[in-house]
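Worked example 2:
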Amino acid sequence: MNISQLLNDAGQVLRLRYRAAAEYRYPLPVCLAVLVAVGAVQTPGAVPIFGGGDATAAFIILLSVLRCILLAKTMSAVLHYFGSEKLPLFGYCVLTEALILPSVLIFYLPESFAPVFVFWSAWTFWVQCIGFYHLGKQGVFKILLGYLAYLLASLFAGALLLSLFVGMQWFDLAVLQENLKNFGAL
């Protein structure tokens, strides 16, 4: 199994055609390549807060990997708590995170395409959400509860990762605070 299977699966889930959770298994190098690409796509959006440079890219890439793992683990745990079997969701999470990759085009297309990318982002979220609904065979509110648990876990883990980067002096806390003030003023 290689990247072509992941691309084929992406096309299927975009059309709301899902398989069993265990069938979304991809080799570790493919998963890592996809998550690094997701982090690279998300890095320019973080530059106004974290500044440019290798530390920002490393932080966002690590955060992307961490968020994907947390989403798989927390959603699996919440669904299992409500009666689903313990689902291996990491492959599915990597697959649905890969759906963000076309949004890199927003940096190269005219601003008039922005609504297309807003729609794309919303659609990929719903594709992921509906997939959890089908894979876990649980109600919508249980899926949303899983997202809430994921949000709390990712905020905590992101804060720890940020603390590590500040502690290692890869980020300057004063610059981060100033950038946040400037970003908030926009």
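The mean pLDDT is 94. The chain is about 75% helix and 0% strand.
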